[in-house]
Amino acid sequence: MVKPIHRVTTVIKETRDIAPGVRLLRLSDPDGWDLPPFSPGAHIHIHLPDGLVRPYSLCGDAADRSSYFIAVQKEPDGRGGSRQVHALQQGERILVSLPKNLLPLTNAPHVILIAGGIGITPFMPMIHEMSRQGRTFELHYASRQSDAAFLPELEALCAGRMTRYDAERGQRLRLDDVISAIDATGHLYCCGPERMIGELLAKTGHMRDRVHVEYFGVSADVGQQAYEIRLARSSRTVPVKQGQTMLEALRAADVDVSASCEGGICLECKTRYLEGTPVHRDITMPKSERDTHLTPCVSGCAGASITLDL
Amino acid sequence: MHMSWKGIVIGLHIAPRSFLPMKTVPQLELVANVGITGDRYASEDGYYSDRPEEGRQITLFEAETLEALKRDCGIDLAADEHRRNVTTRHVPLNHLVGQRIRIGDCLLEATRLSTPCRHIEQITGKDIFEPLLHRSGLHARILEGGIIRAGDTICPA
Question: Between 20 and 30 A from B109 (CA), which of A19, A55, B9, B128?
Fold first, then answer.
């Protein structure tokens, strides 16, 4: 199990259903201390009671340092994370990761947000911030009226900049219409079902550097592919998820690797590898050792797997 | 060698648990051979508390480094963002390993140079890991405890 000192300790201050099947949780420090800051678009990993770890976008205002808000849609047929979140009670302590942002808000002069269902969550902090800064943006929010989250808040914050698409009323979001209206400087953000994002990416190849997407809390960052670690001594296999470091994956699997700086300098975590091709990102290991050792805190993997002498 | 210098405390900072932002406070209570009352390493709630280290009871950081970060790298790092307990001025921290220093009425023994940690970038959102190499402060053991305050004199013991 992860050690509490290696995560942020929070207590659930409030749970509230904000739409059918969507529960909002407010997490704070047990003593009311400020929480580590986050930027709009960030997510945290929640450590659930039975050991599951799940990412959820932060959906509160980043200017509020006292709380993290997450909104979780219950997926009865999912892998279990959302059911466990919905079972959490006010007053329970929950460990969470530091916020990480794989969907940062740019300084573009105009921002277009497209949300499908619970994909609205990472956009809430962006809307708070852009409203506060007087920036221009527009929100296209596709969800059924009967289960759309945050509607009252959005109507107050967006003031005429939100277009709703309610399938129950026959209102379909036509991506072509939104994309064709974007000028040469606008940046497009999309978070929603895989099908929506796939269609969007297929239609925006001409402006790829201005398109930012997230699949319900996990970024589609093509620069960091998932791979697996094979542990030679214990004959175990540990998956490394997209956006996760080798060290984080080993820790999540209860593999004890001593580490200190976690920035590729101290070499405390230096580990022998036996097969595979590492991507060395440390800045201090002698070249003579790179054919045999890597640093799990920063090293990546150039293939589908790497075998460590662990 | 006895160096001749005299410095001052310009900021005092604590956090009760790992990762939490540091808060600047007007005074700190130092407990000999333990740490700082209310700080994460005295209560064994620090990120590295699973690797106990006697010489990590209090940490210090030079205000001059904050100014150098701004001057050389254009980075604004506030005194409560460097994650050490004491912000000093006119104290040559990198030269003090193995020496004893006095802060107000308290006595410290400098044990080792602090090294930067990647977490500081995660917490602050600023690219400061590499700029802080070789100037990330000083770890020390508390030999004589008491109250230290902003404005206290720091000098060789």
Answer: B128
- Whole-structure pTM value: 0.80
State the ipTM, two decimals. Answer: 0.85
A35 in contact with chain B, both atoms CB, cutoff 8 A: yes
Contact between B117 and A261 using a beta-carbon 8 Å cutoff: yes
Q: How would you classify the pairing of strands A162-165 and A136-142?
A: parallel
* Domain formed by B7-156, architecture: Beta Barrel (2.40)
Nearest Cα neighbor of B117 from B129, B127, B126, B125 is B129
Instruction: Say what the pLDDT of residue B119 is.
Output: 81
Task: For chain B, give every domain's residue range.
Answer: 7-156
A158-194: pLDDT as tens digits: 988 999 999 888 888 999 999 999 998 999 999 998 8
Tell me the residues of B at the A interface, defined by beta carbons under 8 Å apart.
Answer: 15-21, 23, 44-50, 115-119, 121-125, 129-130, 133
The torsion of the CA quartet A131, A113, A143, A171, rounded to 10 degrees, works out to 110
